[in-house]
Amino acid sequence: MTVFEEIALRQSIMFGGLSFGFLAAIIFAFFFCYRGPSTLKTFIKVLTPLAFAVAGYVNFAAPLVVLGLLVSAIGDAFLSRDGKKSFLTGLIAFAAAHVFYIAHFLPMASLADLTWLPAVLLVVLAVSTERWLIPYTDDMAWPVRIYVLLITVMGCAALGLSGREIAVLGAFAFILSDLILAINLFRLPPDSRLRIPSEIALWIFYVLGQAGILIGAGFAQPLFSI
């Protein structure tokens, strides 16, 4: 195999992996995200972050981004199950993903490039969770607090990236999915008419978030620019 053939193969696997990940995400959104736990639901759910991880790995994406996607798949698996232990394990996995993303963003970020207004608004949102979220989390208060801190740092780090707008949008789509998840878990009544549309919206923003981070910041140069 020549160098050019290897490059073509790797790019084919990358775009194939991205396409497969989006296809799995569409199937999950239409048929599984609003249903109760099942082995099939868990299997379909983890396909998207795993496919994105493979797409990145075969084209030499940043190891921290690939690791973030892999531990996100673990988080997805546990969050697709019922029970406090599964939720806590999933929360820890996604916290680890955010740590990996923070570690990847910070060396590329600059205070000179930081967009301050969104950063301030993000911090205000994080602080506001002490009033509208934390009082409803019972004994999960401190794990949730730590997670809120991590996603806030991740979002602020993304805002310092220059020329990687897709990654910034991806980071904030991820944050929005976490915001919807928090409302669904701790504030939304189980029989609310918003339950199904919110679950679908959560999943859409999550997938777009992961894809945006990979496409916009996972490689030496963004795959696409806006």
UniProtKB/TrEMBL annotation:
Q: Which GO terms describe its molecular function?
A: hydrolase activity
Give the membrane topology: Multi-pass membrane protein
For this protein, the record's Pfam families field holds: YhhN
TM segments? Answer: 12-32, 52-75, 87-109, 115-134, 146-163, 169-188, 200-220
Q: Where in the cell is it found?
A: Membrane
State a GO cellular component annotated for this protein. membrane
- The question of whether Transmembrane helix is a record keyword is answered with yes
Per UniProt, which keywords does this protein have?
A: Membrane, Transmembrane, Transmembrane helix
Which parts of the chain are coiled coil?
Answer: none
Which InterPro entries does the entry mention?
A: TMEM86B-like
Q: Which family does it belong to?
A: Belongs to the TMEM86 family.
User: Under what name is this protein listed?
Assistant: YhhN-like protein
